[in-house]
């Protein structure tokens, strides 16, 4: 299913989106723009220009093993790198 419009008499049917594979869901209209979900992506349709574009999003993982955390015991520390200036990010590798 895509987004369509028509005049108040039910005439002049116009298709505004051309999605294939997934139906459009959760459409929300505000300020002449529609944000909607299609598959796993968010899209933005500008009704003035007709431009339909994907919204780039980045989500932080909620997996504990991917979160930054403090290591209490360093007996298993195998490798450590830091920038020579002492600034920026470094990496610590703890096997097992």
Protein topology:
Layout: E1 4-5, E2 14-15, E3 24-30, E4 33-38, E5 41-46, E6 52-55, E7 79-81, E8 91-93
Antiparallel strand pairs: 1-2, 3-4, 4-5, 5-6, 7-8
Fold and architecture overview:
The chain is mainly beta. It has a domain at 4-55. The protein is 0% helix and 34% strand. It contains no helices and eight strands. It has strands spanning 4-5, 14-15, 24-30, 33-38, 41-46, 52-55, 79-81, 91-93. The protein has a four-stranded antiparallel sheet, with no helix packed on it. A two-stranded antiparallel sheet has the order 1-2. A two-stranded antiparallel ribbon has the order 7-8. Strand 5 (41-46) and strand 6 form a beta hairpin. It is elongated. The N and C termini lie far apart (49 Å). The mean pLDDT is 83.
Write a brief caption for the model.
This protein has 96 residues and is mainly beta. It contains no helices and 8 strands.
The span between the termini is 49 Å
Write down how many β-strands occur, each being a DSSP E stretch of 2 or more residues: 8
**Strand order, sheet with most strands:** 3-4-5-6
Order of helices and strands: EEEEEEEE
Q: Compute the gyration radius: what is it?
A: 24 Å
**Beta-strand percent range:** 25-35%
Summary tags:
96 residues; mainly beta; four-stranded antiparallel sheet; two-stranded antiparallel ribbon; 8 strands; 34% strand
